Automatic annotation (TrEMBL):
Name assigned to this protein: NADP-dependent oxidoreductase domain-containing protein
Occurrences of domain NADP-dependent oxidoreductase (ranges): 34-188
PROSITE patterns in alphabetical order: ALDOKETO_REDUCTASE_2 (PS00062), ALDOKETO_REDUCTASE_3 (PS00063)
Molecular function GO labels: oxidoreductase activity
Taxonomy, superkingdom: Eukaryota
Database matches in Pfam families: Aldo_ket_red
Organism: Helicoverpa armigera
Gene that this sequence comes from: HaOG213922
InterPro entries per record: AKR, Aldo/ket_reductase_CS, NAD(P)_OxRdtase_dom_sf, NADP_OxRdtase_dom
């Protein structure tokens, strides 16, 4: 089956071999010497060969996207990044809109079940300010968070393995947030990234930049 979108992430630029996550003697991920720009150029050939419909990026920052755009003959269709009220990503989203690159938001509910969470870490689904808005519409906090992404023009991919919650996650098209609601939720921005990724020493680690 032909894929709709194939995306490249900086985390895919690891040393090739039998190990899925190759590590050195200091238990650090071993980076590939291949430039992600060259990988993107190889992905363009997949489109030309009819093996995928579109190609995109994941966890790239503005500077890295600009490097790709400088050489791309096929513009990235999508950028997949962590987006939720604690991490609105508005500057990066605005940059992508300027270049007609769509945004897919992962962890839109703040990854409440993330195993690396520490006791006392904020839980987006427990935020009373969003709960107040949810109560106003007779919706769950999760539904409001999904609707928030939709109302921002973002593709949103919430994760659940529970049938009832999956059904709830689809039930978000019978209401719309007001501009005041959106402003209130946006005010929760605190650069609260929940998917930091541990390989900060990777030469292409994207989160050192402002956006």
């Amino acid at each position: 089956m032909v894929g709709l979108i194939k995306a490249i992430s900086y985390r895919q630029s690891l040393e090739e071999g039998e190990e899925l996550f190759p590590k050195d003697a200091d238990d650090k991920i071993i980076a590939s010497p291949v430039d992600y720009v060259d990988t993107y150029k190889a992905m363009e050939k997949l489109v030309e060969q009819g093996l995928t419909k579109s190609i995109g990026l994941s966890n790239f920052n503005k500077r890295q996207i600009e490097r790709v755009l400088e050489v791309a003959t096929i513009k990235p269709a999508m950028l997949q990044i962590e987006v939720h009220p604690y991490l609105n990503q508005q500057p990066l989203i605005d940059f992508c809109k300027l270049h007609d690159i769509a945004i897919t938001a992962y962890s839109p509910l703040g990854s409440p079940d993330r195993p690396w969470a520490k006791p006392g870490d904020p839980q987006l689904l427990d935020d009373p300010r969003i709960k107040t808005i949810a109560d106003k519409y007779g919706k769950t906090v999760a539904q409001v968070l999904i609707r928030y992404a939709i109302d921002r023009g973002i593709v949103v991919i919430p994760k659940s393995v529970t049938k009832s919650r999956i059904i709830q996650n689809f039930n978000v098209f019978d209401f719309q947030l007001t501009l005041d609601d959106i402003k209130e939720i946006a005010s929760l921005e605190c650069k609260g990234r929940v998917c930091m990724m541990g390989d900060t020493y990777h030469p292409d680690y994207p989160f050192h930049d402002e956006y």
